[in-house]
Amino acid sequence: MHQQSKTLPYPKTKLRLMSMAVAGACAAIVGQASAQQAATDTSADAPQTVVVTGLRASMQSTLNLKRDADGIVDGIVAEDMGKFPDTNLAESLQRISGVSIDRSNGEGQTVTVRGLGPDYNLVLLNGRQMPTTNLGDRGGRSFDFSNLSPDAISQLQVYKTGNVDNAAGGIGATINVVTARPFDNPGMHSSINIKAIDDKSGQNLPGPMEFGKITPDFSGIYSNTSEDGRFGVSLSASYQKRDSGFNTAGSTNGFQGPFLASNATSTTDGHALGTTTNGPTGNSIYLIPQNFAYGLNSVQSTRQNDQLVFQFKPNNELTTTLDFTYSEHKIHTLHTEVSAWFSASPTSVSTWPSGSVVTPTTYTENYTTPQDVSAADGDYATKTKNESIGFNAVWKYSPKLKFTFDAHHSTAESGADSPWGSGNDMSNASFSRTFSTVTYGQTLPILSMPVNLAAAPLQATGSWFQNAWQKASVNQAQVSGSWHVNEGSNLNFGIGQTDNTNHNTFSQVQNNNCWGNCAFPAGSFPASLYQSFSLPGYFSNIPGHNSPGIFGQFYVPNFGQLRAQTAAVMAATGNISAGGGYLPSNTPTSDSQIKENTSSAYASYSTDWDTTIPFHSNFGLRFEHTKVTATALAQPATGVTWVSQNELPLTLGGQDYSNTDASYGKVLPDVNLQWDLRQDLKLRASVGETIGRARYDQMQGSLSLGGTASTYYGTASVGNPALKPVTSKNLDISAEWYYDKQSLVSAGFFRKVLDNYAGQAVINQSLYGLHTPVGGAYYNAALAHGCGVADTNCIRNYILTNYNGQPGVTATGPANNAGIIPGTIAGLPTDPLLNFQTDTYVNEKTANLNGLEFNVQHMFASTGFGVQANYTYVHSPLKYNNNNLDASTQFAIVGLSNSANLVGIYEDQNWSIRLAYNWRDTFLSSTTQPGGGNGPVYTKAYGQVDTSIGYSVNKNLSFQFDIVNLNNAIQKQVGRTDQEVENVYQTGTRYLVGARYKF
């Protein structure tokens, strides 16, 4: 080992110190200051540079971050304190090659990196592991970026290769979110931002659903240090209110199937086809819709972020930082939909395309007795709160040896923010549907069906009131050291302890006994409860919305009035089910807690080699040992009762908690090599091993029963606390040409070999000795009488008419207007055992993926124009097999997709303009259908255009105009075929106008 020759633009001592900081040592605070020092070095050995500001300064700092790091690191650096380049951190991350985002309500929420989904990317805040909660995915580990405002963020660092200094858990990437610190930028700095948001997606809704039009966005940051440089304080705060919406069309409960075409003429398997044109034949696979719905959703989100930082430097050797971070995100949603359900009638009429896997282009069911036109409505609100308090101390023991201590306590909590629970739906229906036709082929599927509210007014049918709650916490302490062994050589080392807890509960109050079974006095549900609105206009951005025959109406109630009226009517008529009421329960029926206690130690050694081609190496080793404790509530079932056409609720018994322990250890090596072929040309190679921990719902330790069985089977799930983490062996090779201060061309190859994926195994079994009336003596008598298997109303009517008062059979009234007799039919000891499809998880799957990344960043001399472009190609042979009839045991990598970005830039003394296009190719987004059944869901290719225009009046005052989703892009999700439309989403364009003043 020798001293590095002086052929590089930066002295190696400073370069290596910067590399260690960027690599995510526990002192992430110091990392940013070091990066700035390296970027502005004016020593005799460094080239003299012209100071640049604005977008060019951001681009130059970003390239410095990438160039000076060990391993492959990308990122985004704020061009100025309190001014991040996008309105959302996830939307900023999507500009980086290999990073794709998943959107919720038109806003970036979670990230996928190099084809690996949100659960396999670790997010740090200033080098610290953060807890996260999300009621939409209580079992996941994905970090929800929509909770964080970008205003106090100074850097986003994306580590695509392993680095032993970082906590383990990111296979796709480890993302470090770095916030501003007063010592990073000495002196007094402050700014105020004021914006007005006009989100057109929230205005394409019926009047009673609109929250507002123009909403505010305020943020401010203040930072100051004492004259002697010993004290520093910074405070940032932001508040944003956004009124938006999204409209959907699709089969919200998925498709029935897959079925083998040779069974399509059967009348005994429950999915027979009637009259077909070009119907499925032979060994082809077919699916038919379970239902179809049009939905409108109005969303009001309120986000508040605050951070307070104190820094104290008693002497030049010791720097301490105390920080507190708080965020609160409230979401209030109004939902209404109209839908039709299909019963797989053997008298259906359908038209089909050719192919080995097919879904109908048109599907019609005709009914001899009127069926329901369902109108479902919801009004629910949730709140997520994040709090973190941390302490960091950096002690320079000597000029060559430095120690860092970092500790924090952080929590995230999500729950209901409404007296009606975290989620609720009330379903009402008009029993006047004599046929239903859904036509696929256009972007917007077309549902046609009659409704006669005068003859059959909307009346209560079912309801679901849910209370979900989730809390996660992380207690973490880390001690690390950095020893500058000699010129060009450094040793990093450290130990740490992380205690991570994820606790979630769930309860549901469900009343489902009035699907045509209840007789109500006239006027119980007056028409004045609803307002009617024409449907097609709310899908004006989707081709097909003006098609003839489309069902024309939405029925929008005031949810509070509807709930109160329904509760009163149901109580007066004695139709409230056991434990009923139309409010959520605070007593959980599901309660699961996972604790992970991880001890870690690492060491890495980096050195420069004075060879013909200057060469730098970094060798690291990290060890982690994790103990897992899973505690879960078990609630057995004691009976099964058939209460309506296809609903068999389970009667649940007592409650008990169970505990399961497991542990595992992992040794994670990492090697990063780089060759400086020229001053401006680098070649990198990296090999290493990373892990991604299993999802919490895969590890929960008790048996969880689905609350309601169908006429075919019940559902259950049980996790496996002993699941090992997914292990990835990684290879990365890249070449980078830094041919100008703000310009770059790079190309890279990566390969990941993954092992220990948690595969989903489905076990068909009986549970708790539960018997179902389907297939019992009464049931078989109805079939013998002439009822078809698919005509469950006929079967129930026969049993309730001929066996009322016999064991298990209770008719509760005469037939209603639709000819349906209300009543219950309980499973008897002589009836068949109910089959449960029980999902569980085992470490049995392996996968591999390869990818290519290309980056170009170029500024056109002094013209002010520039361009950024990148493309990522990802391939894996492990794909979902659409031709496989077995949907229960398939495994495929979720989120795998190609992606690209193209950004045009113009900047001069006053103007700063960006026009950005982001594209993501079709990808598998889930192996579970919207209704919970097994089957693929693909998100089709999506491209969005955003623009940002800034004008600086002077060095203090500037104005900003942003447009998000300028091209009004829509998103579409399908199943095995393009006709199998699960959802089409329409959002809208968002406009932001603001002013910023710096003091």
Automatic annotation (TrEMBL):
Q: Which UniProt keywords apply?
A: Cell outer membrane, Membrane, Receptor, Signal, TonB box
Compartments in which it is found:
Cell outer membrane
Q: Which CDD domains match?
A: ligand_gated_channel (cd01347)
> Does this UniProt record's set of keywords contain DNA repair?
no
Residue limits of the TonB-dependent receptor plug domain? Answer: 66-172
Q: Which positions carry the signal peptide feature in this UniProt record?
A: 1-35
- Give start and end of each TonB-dependent receptor-like beta-barrel domain: 456-966
Q: What Gene3D superfamilies does the entry give?
A: TonB-dependent receptor, beta-barrel domain, TonB-dependent receptor, plug domain
Coiled coil residues, start to end: none
Keyword Repeat in annotation: no
Primary location recorded for the protein, binned into one broad class: membrane
List the GO terms this entry assigns under cellular component, sorted alphabetically.
Answer: cell outer membrane
Q: Which family does it belong to?
A: Belongs to the TonB-dependent receptor family.
Please identify the protein, giving its name as recorded.
TonB-dependent receptor
Q: What organism is this sequence from? A: Sapientia aquatica
